[in-house]
Write a structure and sequence with these properties.
By secondary structure, the chain is mostly helical. The protein has 5 helices and no strands. The model has no long low-confidence stretch (mean pLDDT 88).
Length: 77
C-alpha cells in the first residue's frame, strides 16, 4: 500500500510490506468499519495516504482543512 515515489530496494519493500503496510491496512479496516458504502476502505486508504496529504498541502490546505475535506469525502454518499 505504500505509495512512495522514490526508488526503493527489495529489502525496504519487504520491510514495508511486513510492517508499515500491515499497520496501515489494519488502520484502514478499523476506520472504515461500519460504513455501508463499498468504497469506504478505498476512500479511507486515500485519506491516510501520505501522497494525498502532500497534494492537499500543495493546494494550500492546512492540516485541519485537509482533515475536514477527507472526512467529508469518506462520509459522503
Amino acid at each position: 500500500m505504500c505509495t512512495a515515489s522514490a526508488p526503493r530496494s527489495r529489502e525496504l519493500d519487504a520491510w514495508l510490506a511486513g510492517s508499515y503496510d500491515v499497520m496501515i491496512a489494519e488502520l484502514v479496516a478499523a476506520l472504515s468499519d461500519g460504513f455501508e458504502r463499498p468504497q469506504a476502505q478505498a476512500l479511507v486508504a486515500l485519506a491516510l495516504d501520505f501522497g494525498t496529504w502532500q497534494r492537499l498541502d500543495r493546494q494550500g490546505l492546512d492540516d485541519a482543512a485537509a482533515a475536514e475535506l477527507m472526512t467529508g469525502i469518506v462520509q459522503s454518499r
